[in-house]
């Protein structure tokens, strides 16, 4: 007799079917007794305490900062030390905007630039400080030390300045002047990029003249700390060098208005910079149009007439124009990469365009500029190194270059790029020119 309650079916798989047939009632009863209890599907995870998100509440943070600033008062050295020490206890990363709002305006700023009256505020901030460059320099040092100590604040600080520039209409004139001087100093020190100036192009601050007036103070402090060349480099780096006209409403965006406004404000160097940028922009547009005319195959008569008209409009000298024409001529063709073929290709190409070059080399100075441009081009494009002498000879025969200009270039007017190589190439031709000149002079003496 088998007691099926003591049988391990897993150990005797061959008996399972037999037992089920022989003792169906007992096996059925046993299976019912061993049914598993129902369980809930899915898994339950316990959230770690460190992963729980803390609710964003800047009130306590603000109270701590305001209390510390009230204790340090107007002593900016003490303020810098307090901010340095507080970074270890307070969450600067989370409440960066609140921190900078308090340091600049004394409290948290609402949209538009106003301070909420129901929140804690301090009277020891940038906006309540004295309105002079020395004080603003001291405040700039406070921000500089804070950002150097806590590098992660760098991006947030730049965003804060952009926001403040959008809120300019909500500030008083004195507050705007202080912020402008501080911004200029921060730009000079490299604490922020010139990209922040983009906020000044917002229509709301442009239309009432707020942007232009702010820019005067900003650029004065920036240039005072550095110089116009450093300012120009910073503006070009972020593409702001060609956008300064946007400081004025659309109906006043002219170089004449810009120049007069900033010259009258004592910023002639900025006016000159803007004029130079406009001239560069005009030359780029002219070169682009010139290249398009060449690509279309327009006749030289029409091209020359167009260029001369543009020279009158933009006051471009022939010396500048020959450089533009040369660049356009050399960029309107795809050059062969092989040195032995590019020489022949360049001679054929320049022979075709020599009438165009001739039209803008009526002065000796223009010829010298063209020779220098050829020298620089052949040096910068290594496949043309051996073509220099052949190009010069071709243009001499086409009456584009005179022997006087070539001799002057050879003796004193050449530049350093490839000097030894090109002078050596030109040596025999220059000797021939000198000999021809001597023969011409002797013939004239004989006739006399």
From TrEMBL:
> What is the protein name for this chain?
Basic leucine zipper and W2 domains 1a
PROSITE patterns from the UniProt entry = W2
Record-linked InterPro entries:
ARM-type_fold, eIF5-mimic_regulator, HEAT_5MP1_2, W2_5MP1/2, W2_domain
Polar residues bias: start-end ranges: 32-44
Give start and end of each W2 domain: 276-443
Q: Where is this region: Disordered?
A: 32-53
Membrane-spanning segments: none
Q: Which family does it belong to?
A: Belongs to the BZW family.
Q: A GO term (biological process) for this protein?
A: regulation of translational initiation
According to the UniProt record, one GO cellular component term is: membrane
Naturally occurring in which organism (per UniProt):
Oncorhynchus mykiss (Rainbow trout)
**Record keywords, A-Z:** Activator, Coiled coil, Transcription, Transcription regulation, Translation regulation
User: SMART domains in the record, alphabetically?
Assistant: eIF5C
Q: Which parts form a coiled-coil structure per UniProt?
A: 276-303
């Amino acid at each position: 007799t088998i007691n099926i309650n003591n049988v391990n079916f897993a150990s005797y798989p061959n008996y399972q079917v037999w037992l089920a047939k022989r003792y169906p009632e007992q096996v059925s009863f046993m299976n019912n007794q061993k049914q598993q209890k129902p369980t809930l599907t899915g898994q339950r995870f316990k959230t770690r305490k460190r992963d729980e998100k803390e609710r964003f509440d800047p009130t306590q943070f603000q109270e701590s900062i305001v209390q510390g600033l009230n204790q340090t008062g107007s002593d900016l050295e003490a303020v810098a030390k307090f901010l340095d020490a507080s970074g270890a206890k307070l969450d600067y990363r989370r409440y960066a905007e609140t921190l900078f709002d308090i340091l600049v305006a004394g409290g948290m700023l609402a949209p538009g630039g106003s301070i909420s009256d129901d929140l804690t505020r301090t009277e020891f901030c940038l906006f309540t400080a004295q309105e002079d460059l020395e004080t603003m320099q001291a405040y700039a040092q406070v921000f500089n030390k804070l950002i150097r100590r806590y590098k992660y604040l760098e991006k947030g600080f730049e965003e804060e300045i952009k926001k403040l520039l959008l809120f300019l209409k909500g500030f008083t004139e004195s507050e705007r002047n202080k912020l402008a001087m501080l911004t200029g100093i921060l730009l000079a020190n490299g604490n922020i990029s010139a990209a922040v100036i983009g906020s000044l192009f917002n229509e709301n601050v442009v239309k009432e003249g707020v942007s232009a007036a702010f820019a005067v103070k900003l650029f004065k402090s920036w240039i005072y700390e550095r110089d116009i060349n450093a300012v120009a480099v910073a503006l070009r780096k972020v593409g702001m060098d060609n956008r300064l006209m946007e400081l004025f409403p659309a109906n006043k965006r002219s170089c004449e208005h810009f120049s007069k406004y900033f010259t009258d404000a004592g910023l002639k160097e900025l006016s000159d910079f803007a004029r130079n940028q406009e001239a560069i922009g005009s030359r780029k547009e002219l070169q682009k149009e010139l290249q398009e005319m060449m690509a279309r195959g327009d006749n030289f008569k029409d091209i020359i007439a167009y260029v001369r008209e543009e020279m009158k409009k933009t006051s471009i000298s022939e010396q500048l124009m020959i450089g533009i024409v040369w660049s356009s001529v050399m960029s309107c063709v795809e050059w062969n990469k092989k040195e032995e073929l590019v020489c022949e290709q360049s001679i054929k190409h320049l022979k075709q365009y020599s009438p165009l070059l001739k039209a803008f080399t009526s002065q000796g100075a223009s010829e010298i500029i063209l020779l220098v441009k050829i020298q620089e081009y052949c040096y910068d494009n290594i496949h043309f190194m051996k073509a220099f002498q052949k190009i010069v000879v071709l243009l001499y025969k086409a009456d584009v270059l005179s022997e006087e200009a070539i001799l002057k270039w050879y003796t004193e007017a050449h530049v350093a790029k490839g000097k030894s190589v090109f002078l050596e190439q030109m040596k025999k031709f220059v000797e021939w020119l000198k000999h021809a000149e001597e023969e011409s002079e002797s013939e004239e003496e004989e006739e006399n």
